[in-house]
Specification:
4 domains, four-stranded antiparallel β-sheet, conserved putative lor/sdh protein from methanococcus maripaludis s2 fold, six-stranded antiparallel β-barrel, Elongation Factor Tu (Ef-tu), domain 3, 380 residues, rod-shaped, 19% helix
Length: 380
């Protein structure tokens, strides 16, 4: 009995504990609200979603069960959709290209005579020589010019009897580019000059010299080509796709690889009206100051054409779907669905795209998986 008694007591104690545990009242679980039933809009053929039916059944072409399409917010259907916000941003654009230094054509001069003659003496005989305005270039002997001077002197002596003859002789000299100063000198001296000195029409550099001492010259024949290089042009090649970002008056910066550390600033002065059919580029002319004569014709340069920054509505570039015929952005509404908007695009800077019309600042737009939204919208 002494051996059995402890065992019986232990069994009774365990039984009491079990009874206590079982008898403890349980906390009632919170009721689970039933999920609202989804409303079926229609049934579609899983192989051909364009086929719709008002009730379940079999697809007529493949015999598969029709799949229901439920009425639920698109945002819950399109997993992975991310959004951004249309914001007012200061956007500009930089067009990087290359170009070639050229002579400013408005500062290019060709020297010739309007009468036949012979070059008597050359005062400038080296191509590349720097000259100044009014500097003698050459002297020319012309029998026709000598005869006209003599006619003028005769008319001058008989001016009282025939003033019209004097005026006609003077006009003939002036039309041959004889200066009024030369005419006055002829009147004072009373002697016709054998040769006439031709001077430089502008300061600059001799780019080309055809004149040779003793050579015969004909009216209109170019004898010297002079260029003023205080201002030069840069002729840059711009792809036609970048033309919307360039306009006359736009600022530009230029650098030369062989003159590191220096930058020139200029402005766009002309955009060519034609496109090169081989390169699909357009010539853009930019003017630069060159009074120190560092820039020389036919140098190559790198140039950046700047579009001034403007405050515009901008969205992430990934938010724009370009179909080829229209540009679409999906805007999130307050109920979580998306509204398709046709937009007009503007400047693209980095990852941002200007929106000129179609959405307002502050609206949320789909930036990722928006092609899924577009696919569903087309399906519906």
């Amino acid at each position: 009995m002494k051996t059995i008694l402890p065992w019986i007591l232990s069994l009774l104690l365990a039984t009491a504990l079990v009874v206590v545990v079982v008898a403890r009242p349980q906390t009632p679980a919170a009721p689970v609200a039933p999920l609202p039933a989804k409303k079926v809009l229609y049934w579609v053929d899983p192989m051909h979603p364009s086929y719709r039916a008002d009730k379940p059944g079999k697809a007529p072409d493949c015999g598969m069960d029709l799949v229901p399409v439920y009425d639920e917010p698109k945002s819950t259907q399109l997993i992975g959709v991310k959004t951004g916000v249309a914001e007012m941003r200061a956007l500009g654009r930089e067009v990087h290209t290359v170009g070639r230094i050229a002579v400013d054509e408005t500062r290019l001069y060709k020297v010739s005579t309007k009468f036949e003659g012979y070059i008597d003496k050359l005062y400038v005989n080296v191509t590349g020589q720097q000259i100044r305005r009014g500097q003698p270039l050459f002297s020319v002997y012309s029998p026709d010019l000598l005869a006209t001077q003599q006619e003028y002197l005769l008319a001058l002596r008989a001016a009282k009897q025939s003033p019209s003859l004097l005026e006609a002789a003077k006009q003939r000299l002036l039309l041959w580019d004889i200066t009024p100063a030369d005419v006055r000198q002829l009147e004072r001296s009373g002697t016709a000059r054998k040769t006439l000195t031709i001077t430089a029409p502008a300061s600059g550099y001799v780019l080309n010299k055809i004149a040779v001492e003793g050579a015969r010259v004909m009216p209109g024949e170019p004898l010297f080509e002079i260029a003023n290089l205080d201002r030069v042009w840069l002729l840059a090649d711009v792809y036609e796709s970048e033309l919307p970002y360039i306009h006359n008056g736009a600022d530009a910066t230029m650098t030369l690889t062989y003159i590191p550390g220096r930058t020139w600033r200029g402005r766009v002065s002309f955009i060519a009206p034609t496109v090169d059919p081989m390169t699909r580029t357009v010539k853009v002319r930019i003017e630069f100051d060159n009074r120190d004569a560092t820039l020389k014709p036919d140098m190559f340069a790198d140039v950046v054409i700047e579009q001034p920054s403007r405050n515009v509505i901008a969205v992430p570039d990934s938010a724009v779907l370009q179909t080829g015929t229209r540009n679409v952005v999906y805007v999130m509404k307050t109920d979580g669905t998306f509204d398709r908007r046709d937009v007009t695009l503007g400047t693209k800077e980095g990852e941002l795209r200007e929106i000129r019309s179609g959405i307002a600042a502050g609206e949320k737009v789909a930036t990722e998986a928006n092609f899924l939204i577009d696919s569903e919208a087309r399906l519906r």
